[in-house]
Amino acid sequence: MSSENKVNNIMDKKKTVAVIGGGFAGMTAALQLAEQGLAVTLVEKEVAIGGFFPLLDNTFPTNSCGVCFLSPKQPAYCPFVECRLHENLEIKVGSRPVALQGQPGDFNLTLAVDPQGVDQEKCIDCGDCVEVCPVTVPYEFSDGLEERKAVYKLYPKMVKAGYRIDLANCTKCGACVTACPTQAIDLDAVTSYEEEITADAVLLTPGFSLVEGGLKGEYGFGRYKNVVTSRQLERMISFSGPSQGKPVSPADGTIPKKVAFIQCVGSRDVSCDRGYCSSVCCMYATKQAMFIRERCPETEVVIYYMDLRGMGKGYEKYFNQAKDEHAVEYRRSMVSTVKEDPKTRKLNLVYDDGQGFSEDAVDLVVLSLGFDAPKIDFAADLGLELDEYGFCRTQEFTPTLTSVPGLFAAGAFCGPKDIPETVMEAAAAADAVAVSLAVSKSETSDLETQTMQPQIGEVWIEEPKIGIFLCSCAGTMADELDLPRLCGELKERPYVACAEVVDNSCTPQGLLGLRKFIGEHELNRIVIGACSVRDMERSLDAFADEIGFNRNAFVVANLREQCFFPHQGDREVVQSKSKALLAAALTQVFRNLPAPVAEVTVEPRALVVGGGVAGLNASLSLAARGYQVTLVEKEECLGGRLLKAHYTLQGSQPTQLLAELVPAVENDANIEILLNAEIIEHQGRVGNYTTLVRSGESEQQVKHGVLLLATGGMEADTDEYLKGQDEKVLTQSELEERLAISPESLNGCREVVMIQCVGSRESGKREYCSRVCCTHALKNALRLKEVAPEIKITVLYRDLRAYGLFEEYYRKARELGILFSTYEVERKPEAAISGSSLSLKYYDQVLKKDISLNPDLLILSTGVVPGDFTELAEIFSLPLDDYGFFAEANSKAALVDFVGEGRYHCGLASAPLHIKETLVRSRAAASRAATVLARKQIPADKSTVMVSTRLCSGCGLCVDACPYGAREINLSSMIAEIHYELCHGCGSCAAVCPNGATQQIGFDKGQMMAVANAVIR
Amino acid sequence: MGETYSYYPGCTSHSTAIEYIEASHAVMDALGIELKELPDWCCCGAASAHNLSSSLALGLSAFNVGEAHKAGADLVIPCAGCYGNLAQADFVMRQDDKERQRLEKQLDFTYDGEIKMLSLVDLLAREELRPAIKNLVKKPLTGLKVVCYYGCAIVRPGAITGVDDTENPLRIDTMMADLGAEVIDWSCKVDCCGGDLGLTDAKKTTELVNKIIDYAVAAEADCLVTSCALCEANVDIRQQRLPILYFTEMMAEAFQIGDRQRWWKKHFNNPAKLF
Q1: What is the 3 state secondary structure string of A228-262?
Q2: B165: which chain A residues are within 8 Å (Cβ-Cβ)?
Q3: Inter-chain CB proximity B218 and A220 less than 8 Å
Q4: Would you tell me the crossing angle of helices A807-815 and A773-787 to the nearest 10 degrees?
């Protein structure tokens, strides 16, 4: 197999990484490492990669799939597809890691490969085996809500194949063996075997599991039919699920009139040994609630919660949307038990909302399940440090390093987190791995030149000689379709030189079989009748490059998904529609234009704007790979906000971090530092930008391939609660400074009150949650208790967002007697001065009365705001979000990306973040930037547009319409040009062009009309 | 069977729960289980001692655990409250070496952890007894719909009682099904009957009891089966809708043994009409 040899050759030269766990973290990290030129093995214990992601039809806060939007290119990649296609990446499914030995640069990983019964290489995803299987068992994928056969797919929406046989339930009747058209099933392969792989570094991304629904017996899961888990509900609201997107009561199949969500099931609960917050449940319950309200407007939804935890920039908006637009009700309470009315199967929730016990009758109860740490068999052998719950212990300032050298970790294994945070941590871990292996540009750049060298063959100017190849799909097509007859008919068409039946055209080997015919008939255009183009695109493009054809000389007609599947059994329709689809493809390939081959040579330098912790960290990472970095800081010294941080909640020393980062940057030969500097001008495109920087008196032009904006943020100011009028009123940062530098100034301080969410989470002020303030208050309150144990501290809050493993500190604070009391934004606390005494009045919601205090200090948690980036955003033509932070390309999967490659942002310039999270995001940004710098050239994509200079009037509508900045008016010719390397082929410009001057290649107007005609005829 | 156990009667066995004790003895006689009453047992501390002093409460129960050690056989405790107290003392001595040493010295015995504290349910709901119990059934309780009510003391906390599913215990359910009764799952198996509040806050107790009975009636149960004397008293006295029976009374009825007609009269809601 030549393609395998090719991969092996590359691997010989490259550093190798084993990524263990193929969920979102593993896929993300593996893909980024592969793109940076490392040879990656992605190990997954299940029969397919994907982890929890396939369960989610939609994700918060976009309520869309989130990873595949608009175009197939980065940053909008779909990891399922991309991981499978990248040639630097080998996926080993059905493989459990059982032992790991060795040291950095020389690891031996032993995998136990379990028999799956189905040969994934041979399986063609026809589903015949499932049809004949007589065994039915509950489907794990939906917690038993659905049923499956003994031969089944791990999840319904798998990209390709992924069947396995559940040998424990299989009766070995042999029906599937007989039914399988490709002999892919072997019921006798029952023994596991071991396989060893070597790696220079190992990344652990084993993810998490959900707690069992029955963990909290008082809620009756497994006992009362109408109590379901969040996992089951997720299946219900999925369109591929058993109830096609609607919630139903399992007892009688009706749409429930009232649904209750119980939060924190298996979270924040020491009674079941899970003291941590699972971080994502408030958000996913909100998402599920919104979908229920949207699809069943008659259904009431109530969420029973303790603290509403959606900490992050866009999440507050999401809650407000749920409350205001979808009328989802949130009830702060603790549910003690669920009881079932034995006649109606209705459920009674008994809960305490601070006013005593109440009862609500509902039709469906959803348990919002928390996270469990994964089990790692070899953790103990290696001495891998885990916390008391089994999550991987990492240091705050090195969040992706484990206690074992050479072993890295990311994702929920390091503590519960949502997808965005997981993606960030995975990218940061990929960066840490790459840097540790000192992957520099000299080692990585040969990959692109090997695979991506499209040339225009001479073939385009010749008279078309079209070859048609119909894939038999391992014989399955032949059953329903008379392929030879089709060939005979198509041969009669004009310009068709040959029509043949071939096999396995989706594989590189299958394509090689076409060579003979191409030579024999001197073909210059090819039509393939097979399956989805997504399945064969990569190998087809590679094949085109190899034989010197333009990639647009190939057109694929999807006979399988668009004809064979929907019309199965109706031979006549299959035959005639196949013919029509092929006629359309013939017309398309006949009229296709060649794909452009513009390329940009990548300038191996990064421009990093901002010398705070984010900028410093990203610069070091890129410099360590051997890239040049120009670091621009507007102040006279490096450090940014880190200069004002004194200690963290987890006890790390920011001062020490600063003392490490700054000299490291200053002494790095690859990093040029420009202080007192500002950005004047910026132009260019991915791989090749020019930026004019003024530093002090001098100006210089920086040529760079990528841009990183790490321009920081700051603690917000306020004039509420007498701030600025009384010196007893401080912000959290001001208190931190006093605690760190002059703790003696707090002598005699007996009573302190802290107010949370000052100016945050308020319409008309700052709508977003600043994420860090709750933990900032906890850290200062705990430090105060350390300095003066007798001090009385009251924290007035709205929702205490001590997410993830921070919950531990919240518990500790309560144990130390720190008083936490909620307030409503409609009824804020009031501060007043009389004489020298400060008084604070608040309404206690439990005691139901006003409480007056005379604090010696009033501490305000004022939140985080970005710097003023208006001017900068204009110079760079980059978007800001509603709150003035730099806008991410996608709030789920691309948090450090702008739309389009080449320019990234991180740190407080992106969103409110803890230091640890800033460190993660800055490395994630570096990792993303490195995937660009690792290439020598950036080729244009074949999905793009063309401009007729004759028709273009230079109106500029296309420039405004383009979301990627790929269109520009050439001011001398007044023609709208295309920057092919930026174009994603979305077609927005073609749609707005009033003259039809811009046409999408492969979809131009004349071509589409002709194709339509061909189909009709 | 020929099994011999030490026996801790507790105070209710001589008073409010006499029917429970008589039925239990009849059943154990039938099963060939011999009980030897501890010669010098004392009050377990009930619900009052731990309100006064935790060391008094622990001391009283530990004394009885010590007596059991002296007698040298596993201890059967029919009263759920007594069982809870003694099992807790046993748990403390098992877990806390310092406390154990202090109590051993004070109470003059050697704790070896070999002597188990058993509730009557622990004793009679053992898997290995099921064939013998089924054999003894003369008149199956066919057609009788029962809900089983466990209360708190023989179930929680799981770490002390050893009960796996403290929210949905099943041992009495299984036993009743073995006797031929139709066992109905319901939501109040481990709900609070009011406990000692029966003496101080009758209104609250009545409220709690009525909720339990509401669910039992909604489940269309003919009677409620319990293993705790305090539960029985609270739930029986404060309502007129449902007969309450001890699980050993149900066994005796199925076995057709003992002075059952006399026991039925001890209940506020006479269960005679059920049989």
Answers
A1: EEHHHHHHHCCCCCCCCCCCCCCCCCCCCCEEEEE
A2: 217
A3: no
A4: 40
Tell if the CB–CB gap between B218 and A339 is shorter than 8 Å. Answer: no
> How many beta-carbon pairs under 8 angstroms link A with B?
28
Q: What is the sign of the dihedral through the CA atoms of A110, A95, A426 and A233?
A: negative
Does the beta-carbon distance from A342 to B219 stay under 8 Å? yes
CA distance A947 to A973: 13
Contact B195, B47 (CB under 8 A): yes
- ipTM entry: 0.92
| Beta strand pairing call for A751-755 and A792-797 | parallel
CB distance A505 to A448 below 8 Å: no
Token pair, residue A833, equals: 């001065």
How many angstroms separate the most distant Cα atoms in chain B? 55
Residue with tokens 């094949």: A543
Backbone angles phi, psi at A342, to 5 degrees: -65, -20
pTM above 0.80, yes or no: yes
pLDDT mean values, one per 10 residues, chain A (1017 residues): 35 78 91 88 89 82 56 44 74 90 92 87 85 94 91 78 86 93 86 91 96 95 96 91 91 96 97 95 97 96 96 90 96 96 94 92 98 89 92 95 95 95 94 83 42 43 87 75 90 91 75 84 90 75 81 88 83 90 92 77 95 97 94 96 93 94 96 96 89 94 97 95 94 96 90 96 92 97 94 97 96 97 95 92 93 96 95 94 92 85 95 96 95 82 84 92 87 89 84 91 86 87
Q: Which of B168, B218, B220 sits opposite A223 (nearest CB)?
A: B168
**Cβ contact (<8 Å) for B185 and A223?**
yes
Which of B166, B184, B185 faces A217 most closely, judged by CB atoms? B166
Residues of A in contact with B158 (CB under 8 A): none
With beta carbons less than 8 A apart as the criterion, state whether A802 and A778 touch.
yes
- The sign of the dihedral angle between the CA atoms of A964, A967, A969, A972 is positive
Segment A430-458, tens digit of pLDDT: 999 999 987 554 444 444 433 333 334 45
The strands making up A706-709's β-sheet, listed across from edge to edge, are A671-674, A628-632, A605-609, A706-709, A903-905
Question: At A899, is the secondary structure helix, strand, or coil?
Answer: coil
pLDDT in tens, A224-266: 999 999 999 999 998 878 898 899 999 999 999 999 999 999 9
Residue type, A442: S
What does the DSSP assignment read for A608-633? EE--BHHHHHHHHHHHHTT-EEEEE-
- Contacts of residue A482, defined as CB under 8 A and 6 or more positions apart, other chains included, come to A575
CB B218 to CB A223 under 8 A? no
Determine the Cα angle at A237 with ends A231 and A240, to 5°: 95
Nearest CA to A45 among A18, A19, A20? A20
